Amino acid sequence: PLVLGIETSCDETGIGIVRGRTLLSNTIASSMDEHARYGGVVPEVAARAHLEALEPSIEQALAEAQVRLEDLDAIAVTSGPGLAGALMVGIGAAKGLAAALDKPLYAVNHLVGHIAADILAGDAESAPLEYPTIALLVSGGHTSLLHVRDLTTDVEMLGETMDDAAGEAFDKVARLLGLPYPGGPEIDRAAVGGDPQAIRFPRGLSRASDMAKHRYDFSFSGLKTAVARWVEQQEATGEPVPVADVAASFREAVVDVLVTKALAACKDLGVPRLLLGGGVIANRRLRDVALERAAEAGVSVRIPPLSLCTDNGAMIAGLAAELIASGRRPSTLAFGADSTLPVTEIQVAEREAV
Ligand code: ATP
Ligand code: MG
Ligand code: FE
């Protein structure tokens, strides 16, 4: 099916068009610059930016895909989780388009979209996604380990972060190192030439006693505090802060704990497959370490291309195309923004069978 996906859960206005698993276009307009000076996303500013960006973005995505609105088989939209006002702008546009064009509408989960992004990477050479798979979702607002039996019907949560998300930790540590928002790519850049073993920062919930109770859970706030304290102490000595070493060591701590716990889940559940998704998966070191350690463990890894890791509309369209292919009915128009939609709810407001 030819599907147009609308993503407005945070500060990216993403419009993606797919035909089945084939990506046709993926336009992203970001209001990031407007938030940068506040050090984080301002919800009202984001919602307003979506309102302005939606129409030109849809035009551009259609032009790049070389399709017309009338050609579409369905519209897809993120219904949550995310910023309520931002979500509402995308949902309003999607409902309007679906009604005006008389096309089915699929309201889908943003987090499952992140995990589904890898499907679109599928070309003739890459093997189709196999089930079950363990999925590691690492984004700005979430850090979760999932047992995925089928992306369209069965996503089980094994564990999640008890405090900050990994992306949030990147953003906060970047700020205390004086680097701009968003912090992930900045830390990646700052870590070039740094020694990842220079400072041994804590790996949250990784001690034997924690692993008994929180085997698949994460904690990053202690790490953030440890970095802050280390930097303060360094500054107190009057010596310059070795930013590259701090960035590399911090990044190493995050990557280590993410990969260790994901591979533990693969081993425990006897699932030799790992699927990665979410903005933090854009991290170079995370991609490298996951590939290396999974290979040692005999686990195959699927990693979406960089352009599909952070928020985009293509992953939303792609997930809807999967739902359609597996026979799911469209959503009713009676759904709204759900800022805390759990990852287990793949689609919302599916129509009753008649
Ligand atoms: P959620 O998906 O949980 O609702 P979100 O949509 O805001 O949150 P994403 O867009 O998936 O999050 O990811 C954004 C996050 O990814 C930010 O915290 C950003 O710092 C982080 N990120 C982006 N690139 C990198 C990178 N190269 N290394 C580490 N983190 C990165
Ligand atoms: Mg974002
Ligand atoms: Fe996201």
Automatic annotation (TrEMBL):
Which source organism does the UniProt entry give?
Microbacterium keratanolyticum
**UniProt cofactor note:** Binds 1 Fe(2+) ion per subunit.
**InterPro entries to which the protein is assigned, alphabetical:** ATPase_NBD, Gcp-like_dom, KAE1/TsaD, Peptidase_M22_CS, TsaD
- Locate the residues binding substrate: 137-141, 171, 184, 188, 283
- Keyword Acetylation on this protein? no
Domain (Gcp-like) spans: 23-317
This protein is called tRNA N6-adenosine threonylcarbamoyltransferase
Primary localization class, coarse:
cytoplasm
Task: Return the PROSITE patterns for the record.
Answer: GLYCOPROTEASE
What HAMAP family does UniProt report for this protein, alphabetically? TsaD
Function according to Swiss-Prot or TrEMBL: Required for the formation of a threonylcarbamoyl group on adenosine at position 37 (t(6)A37) in tRNAs that read codons beginning with adenine. Is involved in the transfer of the threonylcarbamoyl moiety of threonylcarbamoyl-AMP (TC-AMP) to the N6 group of A37, together with TsaE and TsaB. TsaD likely plays a direct catalytic role in this reaction.
What the record says about family reads: Belongs to the KAE1 / TsaD family.
GO molecular-function terms, A-Z = iron ion binding; tRNA N(6)-L-threonylcarbamoyladenine synthase activity
Q: Which gene encodes it?
A: tsaD
Q: EC number(s) for this protein?
A: 2.3.1.234
Q: Provide this UniProt record's keywords sorted from A to Z.
A: Acyltransferase, Cytoplasm, Iron, Metal-binding, Transferase, tRNA processing
